[in-house]
Here is the input.
Amino acid sequence: MAVSRFAYVRNFELPDPLLPGTFIVVRLDGQSFHRFSEVHAFAKPNDERALRLLDHAATDLMDQFSDIVLAFGESDEYSFLLRKSASLFNRREAKILSTLTSHFTASVVFRWSTYFGNTPLQYPPTFDGRIILYPSIREVRDYFSWRQADTHVNNLYNTVFWALVQQGGQSTSEAHATLKGTQSKDKHELLFSRFNINYNSIDARFRKGSVLVRDSQPASTTDASDAAPSVPTDAAISKKSKAKIKPAVVVLHCDIIKDEFWDGRPDILAG
Ligand SMILES: Nc1nc2c(ncn2[C@@H]2O[C@H](COP(=O)(O)OP(=O)(O)OP(=O)(O)O)[C@@H](O)[C@H]2O)c(=O)[nH]1
Ligand SMILES: [Mg+2]
Here is the structure.
């Protein structure tokens, strides 16, 4: 068929390949989740249903795209690491970013009722996405350490903040004032002395975020024992994932900052 006189417009579509031989990190972040969490009455400071829902959506992504070798989630965000040699969509940036973002978002909506039961979804949640390329293992490891350090700092602050408000009877502005200028050790001390809470005994999911890898770890390293009864456990998600693709995706709540994590999984950064 002859090329139509309109076809030249195609030439305006420029190629957008990602640099070869670089690690690809895709970070998705809930848009205006401050509002979304209020409207859907998320528990404060952490809503386990919401966190498990995002873990499940991230597992869906890893099941679908084998180039994703690691994911880390906290709060309303998820980061995905694609291997250095990833050939997904010929490394076309817009294709990768738009497909991963919409797949993740669709999974969150698709699985909403599994985690939120009769609580209706009031409006469509949306996620923004970005791609960052890292040239070496050092930056990749520091990237994930950065996100997990963020989890720690935010969760410690939020845990003390909501203890002051919910158990201590302070207003939110009083709680902000109480915490102003405090160091990490002050917050630990305040939690323990006023509320008898040992921060280190709080659910590792909240303190460390979720780390998704493609291998089977001993059951003790997963965090399925204390799941809400009506909600699929990490182990159940992993089992389902195993049925579809091997090796299974598992949800861990471990220290990604430590050498042991990376030393024990050389395949993640192998290329
Ligand atoms: N109550 C509650 N709120 C949560 C939870 N997880 C995330 N959020 C909310 O989501 C926000 C996520 O932070 P941001 O991504 O910086 O804020 P945002 O409102 O999503 O804004 P943008 O990302 O810039 O669109 C938090 O500040 C909380 O308000 C949760 O488990 N419980
Ligand atoms: Mg957000």
